[in-house]
Amino acid sequence: MKLYSVLPLLLLQLLTHGAVESRVLHMASDSAYLTKEEHWFNQTLDHFSPLDHRQFRQRYYEFSDNFQVPDGPIFLKICGEASCDGIQNDYTSVLAKKFGAALVSLEHRYYGKSSPFNSLTTENLRYLSSKQALFDLAVFRQYYQESLNMKLNRSNVENRWFVFGVSYAGALSAWFRLKFPHLTCGSLASSAVVHAVYNFTDFDKQIGESAGADCKAALQEVTKLVDEKLASDGKAVKALFGAAKFKIDGDFLFFLADAAVMAFQYGNPDVLCSPLVDAKNNGLSVVDAYANYVKSFFLGKFGVDIQTYDQQYLKNTDLPEGNEARLWWFQVCTEVAYFQVAPPNDSMRSSMVDLRYHLDLCKNVFGEGIYPDVDMTNIYYGGTDIAGSKIVFSNGSQDPWRHASKQTSSPNMPSYIISCHNCGHGTDLRGCPQSPLNLEGDDKHCGSPEAVYKVREQIIDHIDLWLSECQATGRSYL
Ligand SMILES: *[C@@H]1O[C@H](CO)[C@@H](O)[C@H](O)[C@H]1NC(C)=O
Ligand SMILES: *[C@@H]1O[C@H](CO)[C@@H](O)[C@H](O)[C@H]1NC(C)=O
Ligand SMILES: *[C@@H]1O[C@H](CO)[C@@H](O)[C@H](O)[C@H]1NC(C)=O
Ligand SMILES: *[C@@H]1O[C@H](CO)[C@@H](O)[C@H](O)[C@H]1NC(C)=O
Ligand SMILES: CC(=O)N[C@H]1CO[C@H](CO)[C@@H](O)[C@@H]1O
Q1: Largest CB tally within 10 Å, which of 59, 66, 433, 449?
Q2: Is 383 left (phi over 0), alpha (psi -120 to 50) or beta?
Q3: Residue 416 CA, ligand 5 centroid: distance in Å
Q4: Which residues form the catalytic set?
Q5: Quick check: CB of 198 below 6 Å from ligand 1?
Q6: Residue-range definition of the domain harbouring residue 329
């Protein structure tokens, strides 16, 4: 074990495979960042052991151009299941300007350069969990506050903190406020997957709904034809999609299903559906049309690395780059599942993508006994019955992940839906519903930006209120 290792730079490695969010983060160009200047601090490896005092180096970023010295708020933008390469110029930067806030981001343990180990064996992954990650955030928050106080030559002063996150990091944002309410005035939990789901059939169902009748029928035809061809001439049909290397049929079928998902999750339904429906209406091959979408958009423009769907690749414990798929699968296979399985009826994906496929993957990739204890996770956090306060939840209407999020408002925890043809995952924090890669400031070609603006107004009101209440009670000033 090597605790202070610095891994090579992880550039443009795309997390694939049912992963909630990170590939989009990777697509951002350098100019999409407010800062990429790295800082480091020593983090505790195991927050739950009284005996183990090992530490590892954890990477973070700060951006204080908008900070109202000395009492402005501090916005903690939580990084999730990907390398965290800087602070992105997304909607949180607009909020930081508005509130005179400093922005800070901590890389999630194990991802990017914040890995405690060089080798990602199952044994070494034992400290990779959301519970450890939340504790990391709490320790970091204290560390940063103390450093700031030192810089400002003062002690025992607390700025007002607010946490933000999208997707899995959105869940961490909600859970941080739940578990450490004294450390943040509130939380924005965008497309936050707070509910661990074992048998996640609603995910596939949402794809059908987001697609609409014609596209849904075309996609189901693709699935049926591919299933048939797989039985007769597997090699040929895999080759058609550039997936000749795949040994496990389930991996190939999951890859095909996920390719369609991304169109809806990230607001580009027409890129997928228009050519597919055209092909069907004109008597052309829908399978060819789909293969073209997969190769040109999903693998091409979107930039997904096909091998990360291959269990052979996921088993590799010595991955200096592209290890995010293995890391995220470990979290899936131990804590949260979100198994995107075919529903028994009217499925979009092949019925071979079932619970068995996922459980076999967990076992094959990580070993005997690796199994997602979703009940434990939901007991620990409450799932959609989360007993938090001052958390804003937001969901995109077309996003399959919203069925693992909190979709109803409750006292002190408002929930908003952003509804439009293109509204997908984390839409509220990015510039443009159908171009999640366009960050802030370019909404010229956006469809339905009003749907986003409306929810942002609400978000601002909540942040404003909760920051002022934090100040008024004096709770956060020691
Ligand atoms: C972190 O730990 C290393 C190794 O013990 C030490 O050399 C370094 O000074 C520490 N860094 C900070 C910021 O405390
Ligand atoms: C820091 O504060 C102390 C106590 O108020 C003061 O004596 C000292 O001069 C200050 N130092 C600096 C560098 O401002
Ligand atoms: C998974 O959910 C579907 C419907 O939502 C249900 O029909 C099926 O029995 C469930 N499977 C298991 C193993 O619970
Ligand atoms: C299966 O799906 C079809 C089409 O949506 C629907 O008409 C039928 O009622 C469903 N059957 C069951 C058992 O849910
Ligand atoms: C489809 C769905 O469940 N949408 C929900 C999203 O959140 C809003 C606000 O709580 C609900 O009103 C919607 O029903």
Answers
A1: 433
A2: left
A3: 7
A4: 167, 399, 425
A5: no
A6: 1-208+308-478
